[in-house]
Amino acid sequence: MTPDLLGIIENLVAPLDAILARVWMLGPGDLCSSCPMRNECPDQTRCLHLEASVGLTARLDGPFRRFPVGARQVGRVVLERRPFVTNRDLGPLGLAEPLWLSMHRVESFAAVPLLRDGECAGVLALFARRALSEADVRGLAAGAQLLALAIAPRPRPAAGDTPGAVRSLAAVVRETIERTLEATRGRVSGPQGAARILGLKPTTLHSRMRKLGVRRPSR
Predict the structure, then answer these.
(1) Statement to judge: residues 171 and 83 lie in one domain
(2) Could you tell me which residues are beta bridge partners of residue 55?
(3) Which of 6, 7, 16 is nearest to 196 (CA)?
(4) What's the whole-number mean pLDDT along residues 151-173?
(5) Residue 149's domain is classified under what CATH number?
(6) Which of 152, 155, 167, 187 could join 116 via S-S bond, C-beta 3.0 to 4.6 A?
(7) Contact status, residue 111 vs residue 125, Cβ threshold 8 Å
(8) pLDDT reported for residue 182
(9) pLDDT above 90 for 139
(10) How far is 59 from 161, CA to CA, in rounded Å?
């Protein structure tokens, strides 16, 4: 992934005290013969590929570089298309080595789908040293929409499409701000505010809202 995309991930998880954030994207089955989770993969045709790692390590290898669709909580997010979060008993879930969890005092784990046009293109997950609230997960899910727009490829324009059929960057930014405000119930500033989630100063977010004509949703 590009530095800009890695920066987006860092901004998304920074308010949550995350020590490691990772992104897996759907791809074809390619390492089936050596995959530690082969027995959990129903048909070896596609799986989640580890594409980004931010925090304690940037490595993309290791036993968790692939997750079969439907396997463990990360793989289930693809099928269920809804966030998963837990603030206890991470060891038995098989999402990381128990010694690693203990060494880094990991208290919580969250995984949210990267949705685009109603389909799940991948999963954003993080490990944090504090408990995650419902507001935390709502904000993370809203931010994941921005990440999905940035990462997941758009279908090629059909014959006859005009340039106006392609959304502008301003439209993407406006939609991202609106979704984030919905997730925070209109809150702009503060630890759970939209500005913190988007990695902006509250004054900067207010300025962009005025420029783009974004209004806070009614609570």
Answers:
(1) no
(2) 20
(3) 16
(4) 50
(5) 3.30.450.40
(6) 152
(7) yes
(8) 83
(9) no
(10) 41
Q: For the chain, how many residues are written?
A: 219
Structure tokens at 215: 């209004």
Rounded CA separation 75/47 (Å): 8
Give residue 191's domain range. 166-219
Any domain includes 159: no
* pLDDT > 90? residue 131: yes
Contact 127, 19 (CB under 8 A): yes
The whole model's pTM is what? 0.72
What is the tens place of the pLDDT at every residue in 22-73? 999 999 999 888 999 999 988 888 899 999 999 999 999 999 999 999 999 9
Q: What is the 3-state secondary structure (H, E, C) of the chain?
A: CCHHHHHHHHHHHHHHCEEEEEEEEEEECCCCCCCCCHHHCCCCCEEEEEEEEEECCCCCCCCCCEEECCCHHHHHHHHHCCCEEECCCCHHHCCCCHHHHHHCCCCEEEEEEEEECCEEEEEEEEEECCCCCHHHHHHHHHHHHHHHHHHCCCCCCCCCCCHHHCCCHHHHHHHHHHHHHHHCCCCCCCCCCHHHHHCCCHHHHHHHHHHHCCCCCCC
